[in-house]
From TrEMBL:
Region of interest (Disordered), ranges: 1-34, 190-217
Residue spans of biased composition, Low complexity class: 13-26
Record organism: Catellatospora chokoriensis
Domain of life from the UniProt record: Bacteria
GO molecular function terms noted in the UniProt entry: oxidoreductase activity
The protein's name in its UniProt record: NAD(P)H nitroreductase
Residue spans of biased composition, Basic and acidic residues class: 1-11, 207-217
NCBIfam families (UniProt xref): Rv3131_FMN_oxido
Amino acid sequence: MNTTAGHHDRSPASAYAQAAEAAGRAPSIHNTQPWHWQVHPDRLDLYADTSRALPGIDPDERMLLVSCGAALHHAQVALMAQGHTVELRPLPDPAQPDHLATLVISGDAPVTAEAVRLMQALRLRHTDRRPTVDTPVTAEQVDELRRLAGEFDVHLHRLTPDQVSELAVAVSHAEEAAAAEPAWQAETARWVGPGRPPGTGVPPEVLPDKRPETDVGERDFGARGALAVGGGHDKFSTYVVLFGDGDDRAAWLRAGQTLSAVWLHATGQGLAVLPYSQVIEIDGTRAMVRRILSNLGYAYIVLRLGVADPDQPLPGHTPRLPFDATTTVDPD
């Protein structure tokens, strides 16, 4: 069903500003929020903010680009929910590699029920590190997410039980590699510890209060959290890999858009999502995941999908930077 088009008495600049604000809710590695928006009367420009990059963990800025791609899709969702059609120009200026995308309102359209649902999911979306319960993810749910990923020219592969075992080995290797690298540990501590930059990072409220007893281990942030994990496991979870044919900045940005789209739809399906980026951050384990895929493409991120324990409290939302810390509004 369609509803009335958005608030078109507002200026395009106001719509762009609202989209940039909504994009601030996007997921990012260690909640660094490594993006900056420039609002103009005729366009919305997305830039990478390398001051919030992770040079130790993410030297190629692979996950930074994935994070920015997620923010880009969030902005697109917000503009569509305002009743606009949007033209996307990815990586518009080769001379400015940090200029990642330009969004331009190209017309008006009725606000669809799907656009409203996505906007609601955008506000609800969160990372859920609690173990899942004994309710399986359905094949129909996975097929819908696979179809959605395909709209971005990205593939979604559901891991078989044997492949999940291989993933568990890769995750274990990634954790061992991270633990053996002091600079890596220091960088993580900066974004997780009590001295993390205000408005960013991973607070105790979203970290488990004990190590979950799951077959595929979770990232060790080196700090105990305050989130009750309950007694669940991951036996009924589904693990999927987003992968594609490219392995460059354009592909990583598109992977981030896909991540956002899949995550928002999964949220709307009532599924909890946990990203496993640690196996992508390290060259050796990223190669292991590619071998799991029979070298059919480049792995962008692994996701655990499942149903969280409804008897346990939901994790809170991670903090967010204020609008003026991530957005510049052109007065002209």
